[in-house]
């Protein structure tokens, strides 16, 4: 199991290397108490990036020496309790350290990387389909048949993808609300400080592009495809 320990850039501002080392030492003590010092494989502090952070890796062994990550980490509620306890322990020495908002409170969920990769792939396929549709004229009606074949492959994947996204809607809405602010800050010359934030905005744009693609597919073709999908489902 790999854990990440950090804080905001503001928290570390003005602190010496020794003070930062003391912060990460205390964090390591907390984790060693939870998982067993003997089960920690490595604990490495990275100081060469914008915000100092600690990567600590451990083997999730139970008291009776079984390998069981689920039993050690628990469910989401249990993990949130870990984070609450960690903050309480660290705040004893660093009272100005604030607990970040829990995902259980905000409703935000981490969107898996695979979904963003899938979004890029579906966008490419969708744009190819739109290009084919735009080239249809009365003289090359066969192009519509070609477009329909492409749509038959793309549409079920797209519907499945959009269905998966529903459980991440709060996070997506959050990304959308951030996007305008990020663009404004980038224009103000802050883009160099926001690489990760701009990457999130790019991912959000991919998701919105997919919705726009669906809106640009001719309604009569979408209706035909939906009927075909329903017919297949009934015949299963």
Notes on the structure:
The protein folds into 2 domains: 2-104, 2-Layer Sandwich (BirA Bifunctional Protein, domain 2); 113-235, no CATH class. It has a 3-stranded antiparallel beta sheet with strand order 1-3-2, covered by helices on one side. The two termini are 42 Å apart. The radius of gyration is 25 Å and the shape is elongated. It contains 10 helices and 3 strands. Helix content is 66%, strand content 7%. Helix 7 (142-165) packs across helix 10 (219-235) and helix 8 (169-190) packs across helix 9 (195-216). With 236 residues, the chain is mainly α.
Question: First CA to last CA: what distance?
Answer: 42 Å
What structural class do the secondary elements suggest?
Answer: mainly alpha
Strand content bin = 5-15%
Rg from C-alpha positions? 25 Å
Based on DSSP secondary structure assignment, what is the total number of beta strands? 3
Q: Please bin the fraction of helical residues.
A: 55-70%
Give a short summary of the structure.
The protein has two domains: 103 residues, 2-Layer Sandwich (BirA Bifunctional Protein, domain 2), CATH 3.30.930.30; 123 residues, no CATH class. It is 66% helix and 7% strand. It has ten helices and three strands.
């Amino acid at each position: 199991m790999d854990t990440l320990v950090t804080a905001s850039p503001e928290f570390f501002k003005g602190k010496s290397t020794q003070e930062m080392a003391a912060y990460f030492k205390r964090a390591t003590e907390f984790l060693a108490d939870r998982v067993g010092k003997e089960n920690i494989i490595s604990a490495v502090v990275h100081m060469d990036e914008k915000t100092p952070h600690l990567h600590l890796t451990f083997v999730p062994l139970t008291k009776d020496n079984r390998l069981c990550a689920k039993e050690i980490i628990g469910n989401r509620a249990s993990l949130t309790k870990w984070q609450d306890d960690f903050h309480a322990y660290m705040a004893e020495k660093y009272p100005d350290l604030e607990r970040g908002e829990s995902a259980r409170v905000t409703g935000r969920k981490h969107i898996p990387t695979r979904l963003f990769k899938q979004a890029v792939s579906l966008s490419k396929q969708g744009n190819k389909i739109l290009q084919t549709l735009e080239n249809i004229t009365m003289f090359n009606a066969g192009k519509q048949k070609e477009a329909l074949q492409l749509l038959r492959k793309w549409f079920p994947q797209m519907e499945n993808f959009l269905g998966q996204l529903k459980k991440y809607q709060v996070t997506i809405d959050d990304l959308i609300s951030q996007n305008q602010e990020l663009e404004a800050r980038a224009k103000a010359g802050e883009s160099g400080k926001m690489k990760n934030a701009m990457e999130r905005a790019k991912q959000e744009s991919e998701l919105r592009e997919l919705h726009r693609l669906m809106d640009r597919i001719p309604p009569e073709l979408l209706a035909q495809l939906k009927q075909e999908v329903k017919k297949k489902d009934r015949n299963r």
